[in-house]
Design brief:
The protein has ten helices and six strands; from the N terminus they run ααααββααααααββββ. The protein is an alpha+beta fold. Strand 4 and strand 5 form a beta hairpin. The termini are far apart. The relative contact order is 0.05.
Amino acid sequence: MDGDDEDGDPRATSAAKAAADAAADATANAAAASAAASSVASATASANAASNKKAFNRLQSGIDALAGSDIRDAAHAAALLSFRRRPTRQQTSHVVCSVSQQSEDKVVVMKNSVGDLPIPYSDKDPYKLPLSIERVQRMLFRFGWEKPWIEQIVDRIMKGMLKTTEERTQAVVDYLISIGLRQDEICNMASISVVLLGLNPQTRLASIVNYLKERGVPAGSIPSLVLKHPRIFEYKLMAEGSSLSKGKARIQVDVIPAGLSGEMSAAVTYYREGASFLVSPVSPIGPLLP
């Protein structure tokens, strides 16, 4: 009986082997499809997490491999459709810059940071000085003044602390030169006195010089005196003619003998309105002459 079972019909044996081979092939194909689907799913998760173009390329390769395999299972076909590459959105960033030509060999480029409003288009250079101020600046450079003091004067004009023009500045410089001052000395005075270059030479500067002459200051000593006291031009002559005033501040100039030789010297006294002199041990001496 056992021998008959082992040596049965050869056609049945061939059919059984063919069925076994087909089952093995189907199992292998299913395993390959499952592995490909797992690879695609892993690549998809990695691509979604990192949003990386390289990961999406690996995902596309896995889809191509899955599509090329011999799959007749409807579930695998549905998996193939579900793992299609998702469309990506392109992000575009705009950078707004302003370019200004400072000189022939200097160009300034300023970029807006994230969140700044874009710079509106304009033909006006934001770094260029107004024409009236630029003329004053060029004139002071022609005079040979020091660059730091010129920049300080320009900054005062821009901030409204000094109101002047090219013509007024030229008139002030010419007048101070006429009384014996040099350009470098005028530059030092203008760096100390904020409003010097904006004063009227005839009504402000000349009146102070005339006051000094009337108080007995020699003409040759006036340049040295005003150089030591550059803010004296900011004061105005009072009605009595003996002192100068700026608000409640006062200046009085007296020419007195100094030393044993009897040489005359100018004494400049600064005091406040209503100040008391020589009434206590700490009181100042005050003006010497009425």
